[in-house]
Amino acid sequence: MNKNIGLKLLAFTLVLLVSVYAISCVDSLNTTPIDEDVVTSAQVFDDPENFKKVLAKMYAGLALTGQQGPAGQPDIQGIDEGFSSYVRQLWVHQVISTDEAVVAWSDPDLPEFNYQAWGASSDFVRAMYSRIYYQITLANEFIREAQQRDEAVIQDYLAEARFLRALSYWHLLDLFGGNVPFVTEADPIAAYMPEPTNSDDLFAYIESELLAIEGQLPSPQGNDYGRADQAVVWTLLAKLYLNAETYTDQQRYADALSYSQRVIDEGGFTLADNYQHLFMTDNDQTGEIIFPVRFDGDNMRTFGGTTFIICASLGGSMVPDDFGTGCAWAGHRTTPEFVSLFEENGDGWADGRALFHTDGQSLEIETISQFTQGYAIGKFSNRSSTGERGKNSEFMDTDFPMFRLADVYLTFAESAIRTNSETARALDLVNEIRQRAYGDASGEITAGELTLDFIIEERGRELYWEGHRRTDLVRFGLFTGGDYTWSWKGNEQEGSSTSEHLNIFPIPSADINENLNLQQNPGY
Q1: Confidence of residue 21 (pLDDT cuts 50, 70, 90)
Q2: Stretch 346-369: mean pLDDT, rounded?
Q3: Phi, psi at residue 500, to the nearest 5°?
Q4: pLDDT (tens digit, 9 = 90+) per residue, 78-131?
Q5: Would you say 86 and 62 are in contact if contact means Cβ atoms under 8 Å apart?
Q6: Could you tell me which residues come within 8 angstroms of residue 87 by beta carbon, excluding any fewer than 6 positions away?
Q7: Alpha helices per DSSP H over 177-226
């Protein structure tokens, strides 16, 4: 682990700003604090050494929930702090809203994700929105201050901060659309109501930021593991371009092909030999993960991240110690429709990615609140590839793979199909993935089988529970509507059609009420 991320970081006025849980009114960052334990941003950035600490806070903001682990002094208010983790919220929005998972719990506003029935007053929608803006606001202040410094190392940090801001703006665009408040370091520090942007402009801004910093970041794998480098930027550009038609109605598949090819050819990454090793405590040694969100059970204690993913997936007859933990929160299982993506061979599944726990579990889900209904999934673990338990049995050591090479292979393949180019290489890359999955050549496909229908299914098989499924289904026109239904979509056990407006989430009603410049997303 990069222990810089585990430092006890400075609490400063910016934390207080976004703790109000909304971005409606951007307030002063330099107000003299009343609490003697809190310093202003001007005091923080007066010391050049603190730039590294604040950068660490930005990376840690993807994993941790506040200034004290596992809870206490939260970054945002209005929801149980354990729920407020960036990765945890991203996982809820991208996974539970799809065929990949249902959740048994009855926490207010959470069951609605099983049914695609969320609304503008949802605390979970509000928490995701606020967590994203927390990151953006933190980055804006860092960038504003770093631009005034000449030190070379601070300029290096500046490029990383711009990447982290672009990443959060991409999540904002993907989840909430373009009708969102837009703030940068160029906006006034005094209190004001930000104006909304639009999808075209926000897409162009994210693209321009990534292109601008590409040459300022270290070469692929030239930075500390878990920090941004050129390959991380290329990966995000490839994903941005892959979804450009969703965001802007303009196809950019040729660009997605180009940037995914750069990652493949110049990144120096390789597919891990063993699929399961990608989701264990030493997954930083696999050579496949391009950009992780790092976790450490001793130094980064949180009820979000992979602690959430692992603990919430265990229950029923599952043995927590097999996964290196003592927790079993009995929350998440998968749907029978998702299970059907994997071909049975009469004795389970030949595809080694089908990490289903079926003992004591029914395939069908009649009552979502019953953990034993729906196959459980044992994909993530707090044990290493050699079997050692993580350092802490309550908080996990396993990093979350936000970007990895197999995703880039499949981005290349989809873009190749959509542009009718490089299809021979695309087939080879897909079959590399499937050779790993099956352990031999039995899972390989032919050129005629390499279709878009195959790609959306293969992305599900390869990338499930990693936070991609909703975006993928939206891109293929399968997330809402009735062309593809799954258990409990539309609040019907057999699944039913849902409204297209649910392809993006609502602007939280609290922000709409506070900022008169904003308009709600259509349908909410």
Answers
A1: very low
A2: 97
A3: -65, -25
A4: 999 999 999 999 999 999 999 999 999 999 999 999 999 999 999 999 999 999
A5: yes
A6: 62, 63, 293, 304, 305, 306, 308, 400, 467
A7: 199-213
The domain 3-216+506-514 is classified under which CATH number: 3.20.20.70, 1.25.40.390, 1.10.8.420, 2.40.30.10? Answer: 1.25.40.390
What does each C-alpha distance from 7 to 16, 46, 72, 153 come to in angstroms? Answer: 19, 19, 16, 19
- With a CB cutoff of 8 Å and minimum separation 6, the contacts of 10 are 39, 44, 50, 53, 54, 57
User: CA 453 → CA 122, 185, 410, 472, 494, distances in Å?
Assistant: 33, 43, 13, 12, 22
Percent of the chain predicted with pLDDT > 70? 93
In the chain, what are the domain boundaries? 3-216+506-514
Look up residue 473 and give its two tokens: 């289904």
Whole-angstrom CA distances from 434 to 178, 351, 356 are 36, 8, 18
- Round to whole Å and give the CA distance between 466 and 90: 10
Across the chain, mean pLDDT equals 93
Of 280, 462, 429, nearest to 353 by C-alpha is: 462
Confidence (pTM): 0.94
Q: Which of 120, 128, 245 is nearest to 522 (CA)?
A: 120
Q: What is the mean pLDDT of residues 138-153?
A: 94
Which helix or strand (DSSP H or E) is residue 333 part of? Answer: strand 332-333
Residue 37 is predicted with a pLDDT of: 60
Higher pLDDT, 26 or 267: 267
**Alpha carbon distance 230, 405 (integer Å):** 14
Burial class, 184, CB count within 10 angstroms (exposed 0-12 / middle 13-18 / buried 19+): middle
Instruction: List the structure tokens of 429.
Output: 């890359």
CA atoms within 13 Å, Cβ hemisphere of 229: 20
| Number of neighbours of residue 153 by Cβ within 10 angstroms | 11
Sign, CA dihedral 444-448-449-451, equals positive
% helix, strand, coil for the chain, step of 5: 45, 5, 50
The pLDDT tens digits of the residues spanning 483-513 come to 999 999 999 999 999 999 999 999 999 999 9
